[in-house]
Amino acid sequence: MSPAPPPPSRARIRPWLVVGDLALAAAWVCAGALVKLLVYGPLGFGGRPQAEAVKVSLSIVYMFIFAWLEAATGGASYNPLTILAAAVASHGGPAVYLFTAFARIPAQVINVPGRDVCRQLVIQSSFWIWSSILSICETQNGLW
User: Fold this and answer.
1) Is residue 5 part of a domain?
2) Average pLDDT, integer, range 57-71
3) How far apart (Å, rounded) are the C-alpha atoms in residues 89 and 104?
């Protein structure tokens, strides 16, 4: 006869996860922007169909990296829906749910530093991309 399964583990409130959530959510936003900038900028795929395949391939790579980061941080996440589902399904009671709803999810959703850094990065990179396109048009056509 097999032994009885262990009782379900009770969820704990871990305050350091708020900082991890904030950092991972900011990094997730920046990773998506950087993949697009890399594909359309230095890799030079432009509007070709190969650009979509490269974007998907790089996105899969950074999904594995973020899965590793979630494990390394002990449960921090970039996705508010996954932690909300875990809080509802856990046996931690109302304290874990309230901590998730009022501390972890706002840290991911608000994420002001990540948005501002990525916005500046996209603006600067977009200028570089458009100036590169204009210089290519000038060299190919002789004039703009």
Assistant:
1) no
2) 93
3) 16
Helices 112-141 and 16-40, axial angle in degrees (round to 10)? 10
CA distances from 100 to 15, 22, 28, 93, 104 (A): 10, 13, 19, 11, 5
- Return the axis-axis angle of helices 50-72 and 16-40, rounded to nearest 10°: 160
Spatial contact of 107 and 94, defined as CB atoms under 8 Å apart? no
* Model pLDDT, residue 116: 65
Helices then strands, each counted (H, E), the chain: 6, 0
121 within a domain of the structure (yes/no): yes
Helical residues (DSSP H) of the chain, grouped into ranges? 16-40, 50-72, 80-89, 94-99, 105-110, 112-141
Report the domain count for the chain. Answer: 1
Which pTM value belongs to this model? Answer: 0.68
Could you tell me which residues come within 8 angstroms of residue 75 by beta carbon, excluding any fewer than 6 positions away? 14, 17, 20
- Of the candidates 54, 111, 49, which has an alpha carbon nearest to the alpha carbon of residue 79? 111
Q: Whole domain around residue 71: which residue ranges?
A: 16-141
